[in-house]
From TrEMBL:
Domain NADH:flavin oxidoreductase/NADH oxidase N-terminal: start-end pairs: 4-340
Source species taxonomy: Bacteria, Pseudomonadati, Bacteroidota, Cytophagia, Cytophagales
One Pfam family it belongs to: Oxidored_FMN
Keywords, in A-Z order: Flavoprotein, FMN, NADP, Oxidoreductase
Protein's UniProt keywords contain NADP: yes
A GO molecular-function annotation: NADPH dehydrogenase activity
Name under which the protein is recorded: NADPH dehydrogenase NamA
SUPFAM superfamilies: FMN-linked oxidoreductases
Cofactor(s), by name: FMN
Organism: Hymenobacter jejuensis
Gene3D superfamilies on file: Aldolase class I (3.20.20.70)
């Protein structure tokens, strides 16, 4: 039987050539938000390697929305040119370029992992962070200020303006980052949202900002372009956001022109006990898909072809989203095709290496 992993997927006006997605991965390699040669080679290699969709790392919609001063951004028109060069190369390889639009909220103004991952004070290139409530992520993180009405309007304006730039930069998929304890996830979870206005309290109020962001993006994003949302399906913590909440949210999002839920978990609470292991988040993609009918992407320690194929065969997800395996092997899709007996084209320049002998 033909491998499902190498079957195309149609989403609105877009066809992905296979089900393999490069998960967004921060490179912490930008200055002033600009993409550069690193991003071209890093992302370009995965396009050469046969991925169907490549989602650029968390890309900040505003300078204060960066996790670190080294994050990629799309808050000014000057950012577009290099992004366009990279998306054009990706398309030339038969792949599709997507981007994860992000605002880091109270987890902003920190340093990259290899600079210690610690808070960056304002006098050393850091900035005042914002959040639903004035509650730091932990003692090691900056104290955020609670967003007021004008601050919330700015977030919406920033997502809207970023979406215009995404179109100009040639992206075909936008993924809104509403996971991992960043701004939008902070609003969902009662552990980080203690507001008493229309953005806090009830479930409807806590998901309001995400719905407003979705609407702002969809005002600009063409109807034939897919829109994904990455969520943390659970906080893995008593009293926090749960899989039941995620199912309820997905039921709303599918009526708001969102096309796929990328089901990650965690990140909003330090020291959550997460049972990390092969495919440990697949059950969340499966449950959201089964209970709401919205397409999902499975992510988290998916590292081999047969494992990925089985997830699709079991109807647990529509896309297989992979991060670290792609750092070990940029050509994972080409290797997976050989393993599953699917004949996929290699770049003509590499064809002489397609057969072992
Ligand atoms: C280097 C690195 C950077 C990451 N950056 C992001 C990011 O920008 N946005 C995001 O949503 N997740 C990010 N993640 C999480 C991955 O997208 C993915 O969800 C996670 O690594 C689990 O998948 P894996 O087991 O295939 O690595 C990052 C992970 C790694 C390893």
């Amino acid at each position: 039987m033909a491998a499902k992993l190498f079957s195309p997927l149609r989403l609105r006006g877009l066809e992905l050539k296979n089900r393999i997605v490069v998960s967004p991965m921060c490179e912490y390699s930008s200055q002033d938000g600009f993409a550069n040669d690193w991003h071209l080679v890093h992302l370009g290699s995965r396009a050469v390697g046969g991925a169907g969709l490549i989602i650029f790392e968390a890309t900040a919609v505003s300078p204060e929305g960066r996790i670190t001063p080294d994050d990629l951004g799309i808050w000014k028109d000057e950012h577009i040119e290099m992004l366009k060069r990279i998306t054009s190369f990706i398309e030339s390889q038969g792949s599709v370029a997507g981007v994860q639009l992000a605002h880091a909220g109270r987890k902003a103004s920190t340093s990259s992992p290899w600079k210690g991952g610690v808070k960056v004070p304002e006098d050393q290139g850091g900035w005042q962070t914002v959040a639903p409530s004035a509650l730091p992520f932990s003692d090691a993180y900056p104290m955020p200020v609670a967003l007021d009405e004008a601050g919330i309007q700015k977030v919406l304006d920033d997502f809207r303006a970023a979406t215009k730039r995404c179109l100009q930069a040639g992206f075909k998929v936008i993924e809104i980052h509403a996971a991992h304890g960043y701004l939008l996830h902070e609003f969902f979870s009662p552990l980080s949202n203690q507001r008493t206005d229309q953005y806090g309290g009830s479930f409807e109020n806590r998901i309001r900002l995400l719905l407003e962001v979705v609407a702002a993006v969809r005002e600009i994003w063409p109807t034939d372009h897919p829109l994904f949302v990455r969520i943390s399906a659970t906080d893995w913590t008593e009293g926090g956001w749960s899989i039941e909440d995620s199912v309820a949210l997905a039921n709303v999002l599918k009526t708001k022109d969102v096309d796929l839920i990328d089901a990650s978990t965690g990140g909003n609470v330090p020291n959550a006990r997460i049972p990390v292991g092969p495919g440990y988040q697949v059950e969340f993609a499966a449950r959201i898909r089964q209970e709401t009918g919205i397409p999902t992407g499975a992510v988290g320690i998916i590292t081999d072809a047969q494992q990925a194929e089985t997830i699709l065969e079991n109807n647990q997800a529509d896309l297989i989203i992979m991060a670290r395996e792609f750092l070990r092997d940029p050509y994972f899709p080409l290797h997976a095709a050989q393993e599953l007996g699917a004949d996929v084209p290699w770049p003509v320049q590499y064809e002489r290496a397609k057969r072992h002998k």
